[in-house]
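Fig. S4 source data, part A: sequence.
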Amino acid sequence: MFITVFLVSLVIATFFGHFIHWALHQRWTGPAYRGHMEHHLELYPPGNLTSEKYRSAKWYHSGPFLFTPAAIVILGTVGGLLWALETPLWAIVVFGVTLVGFGLLNDWVHDSQHVTNHWASRFEWFRRARTLHFKHHRNMKSNFGIMFFGWDRVFGTFRKK
């Protein structure tokens, strides 16, 4: 049962990760959009996608500042719904830990993709994900995934070339 709850939580976490990244590309998200565009247009524009050390956005445009409000809303809404449905507390905790853990890992992998000669570059999955992410920097209407691009395939935003 634990494995099932973890896997369902992982599917939900990847969906929310995709949705949040997509939302950061929508003008209606206001300050979040502007902060994310700083990353795309100033820090890592298409012709300058890597650096020796990750170029951090202004603190109020950083990942934790942008993603924490969304994570709180998602955790509160889904956790409250699960609680109302009398889901066991351990399953709600597994969901919360999986969502937060995936979010932190996703953020770390993203930042690492922009670092020249990062140690994770020795792994094929990392190089493949970085290539797809860099395609996103060249065409901001595609490849919203960072590590997982399944939702891009579902929503028609996946671009291999």
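Fig. S4 source data, part B ends here. The mean pLDDT is 90.
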